[in-house]
Design goal:
249 residues; four-stranded mixed β-sheet; alpha+beta; three-stranded antiparallel β-sheet
């Protein structure tokens, strides 16, 4: 990643106020991915910094600015476009009349990857190795084969919906329920009746559980089957265009 640090010291005269100047600092960090995606920006904007502190902070960055770029550039006006953004359209509700419920796989359409880390998932007592590590290793292989992107924690800052995939092992309750392994995808969604209300909820889930017909079926196999359910649904909702083209679809 190419990291560019731009620091601008702006002196603004305040009409009607009995002081000579105000000192404002704008520190901007641009992260430029090398995969062709858009740059990402973060900034600190500081108003009315005492002049001595502003000078010390600004001057202290000059050695780095000279090393990686150009230091202390003078400007007659702000070089950064600060025009106010266009106001968003007024919030309203979504009319769901006439819409039909989608399938489980359809909820994954257009999903540009998920954040997932299964290494800390606890498994059954007496499991032969590290349950979470085994699950995560299999998921990495399965996702790589299916070209499903895995988002980092930093990616989540800009990922629509902040999709996170979780796994859980639920122990057997004798006479009540068998053990099971479940996967769930949680995302941020808004209510159709009020778009100002956002919540985190499960938008996809799948599970595999103990089989009375196959006593050899264990939690390790259930993990793989649950992950395969997600891979299958994701691939169904997001078909490879090259495969479709080759098959004449």
């Amino acid at each position: 990643m190419l990291v560019r640090l731009a620091l601008i010291g702006m002196l603004l005269a305040l009409a009607g106020v009995a002081r000579a100047e105000s000192n404002n600092l704008w520190v901007m960090w641009e992260r430029v991915p090398h995969d062709g995606t858009a740059s990402r920006y973060r900034s600190h904007l500081m108003f009315d910094v005492p002049r001595g502190e502003a000078e010390g902070f600004f001057t202290g960055l000059e050695p780095s600015a000279q090393r990686y770029g150009t230091a202390s550039i003078a400007h007659d006006r702000s070089p950064i476009c600060t025009a106010p953004p266009e106001p968003p359209p007024p919030l309203t509700y979504i009319d769901t009349n006439g819409l039909t419920a989608v399938s489980r796989a359809d909820t994954l359409r257009g999903l540009a990857g998920v954040h997932v880390d299964l290494r800390g998932v606890r498994g059954p007592a007496g499991y032969r190795s590290n349950f979470g590590e085994d699950a995560h290793a299999f998921l990495l292989r399965a996702f790589a084969e299916a070209d499903i992107p895995i988002l980092t924690k930093d990616d989540l800052d800009t990922a629509p919906g902040r999709p996170i995939l979780y796994m859980r092992y639920s122990a057997e309750v004798s006479g009540c329920r068998p053990w099971s392994v479940s996967l769930s995808l949680r995302q941020q969604v808004v209510l159709a009746r009020d778009l100002t209300m956002m919540l985190e909820t499960v938008t996809w889930s799948g599970s595999a559980r103990q089989s009375e017909e196959d006593i050899e079926y264990g939690p390790g196999q259930a993990v793989e089957d649950a992950i395969k359910l997600f891979v299958t649904d994701y691939s169904t909702a997001n078909p490879d265009p090259m495969t479709d083209t080759a098959s004449g679809g």
